[in-house]
Amino acid sequence: MAVQHIDKEIDARGSFCPGPLLELIRGVKSIEVGQTVQVLSSDPGSNRDIPAWIQKAQHEFLGSFPENGYVRFVVRKAH
Amino acid sequence: MANRMSIVLFSGTVDKLFAVSTLTAGAVAMGMDVDIFLTFWGLNAFRKDQVRTNVRFSSDFAEFAEPALQAMKAKNVSHWLDTLNQAREIGNVRVQACSMTMELFGWHLEDLDPIVEDVTGVATFVQIAQEGEVTLFI
User: Fold this and answer.
1) What CATH code is carried by the domain that includes residue B52?
2) What pTM does this model have?
3) Is A1 a residue of the active site?
4) Is the CB of residue B86 less than 8 Å away from at least one CB of chain A?
5) Dihedral angle of Cα B6, B12, B18, B19, to the nearest 10 degrees
6) Would you give the distance in Å from CA B79 to the centre of its chain?
7) CA triplet A8, A26, B17: central angle to 5 degrees?
């Protein structure tokens, strides 16, 4: 598995919907185009919302990686 | 152009305030503008002297009040006003007060939490809602 360089990591584990998604959005806003954000979420609702938002906002979805009790989402800011 | 969700917030119980803040956050996350029109008990809930201390709960579900509030505290759930402010950082959220309710109770804009931008009349709100895709009465 390729190791992605992550520019910003957000640990939103334990946070409830819409927390993780809002934190991801703020994270994406705070980085430059071309940089990557990784968000860790343990909330089932957010685990659906996050990919949906990435698609809607037209950023580059670099994958979701299930870990022990949470999921890692990696996004590259496309614009 | 972003589409719009308009919310008439009539209720003042924290369960409904929580729902409104979550919906607002979800809407801005999906690129919608949100307009909230505060009236009656919704407006009351934004008074500076209540906004953080209000723990009113829907009376039909009174038996859930204590467990729900405890769970929210234990699980570190954000206060509804904080979620609204976060949503406002991310997208366009405008909160306005109903002039009729303000007059009725003799309130002024300075009595309300600073998130409330303005006092407006019903016709203005109806026009705002008419331009949007979603209107909710909560």
Assistant:
1) 3.40.1260.10
2) 0.88
3) no
4) yes
5) -50
6) 12
7) 140
> Which of A19, A26, A49 is the closest to B90 by Cβ?
A26
Split at pLDDT 50, 70, 90, the class of A3 is low
Residues found in chain B: 138
Residue-wise pLDDT for B85-132, tens only, equals: 999 999 999 999 999 999 999 999 999 999 999 999 999 999 999 999
Query: Taking CB atoms and an 8 Å limit, are B29 and A18 in contact across chains?
Result: yes
Measured in whole angstroms, how far is the alpha carbon of residue B15 from the centre of its chain? 11
Residue B136 lies in a domain: no
Among candidate residues A6, A7, A17, A62, the one labeled active-site is: A17
B123: containing domain: 4-128
| B134 within a domain of the structure (yes/no) | no
Number of domains in chain B: 1
Residues within 8 A of A (CB atoms), B 39-58 only: none
Range of the domain at A36: 8-76
Instruction: Determine the distance in angstroms separating the CA of B136 from the nearest CA of chain A, rounded to an integer.
Output: 19
| CA–CA separation, A31 and B66 (whole Å) | 41
Residue in chain B lying closest to A21 (CA): B29
CB pair distance less than 8 Å for A26 and B75: no
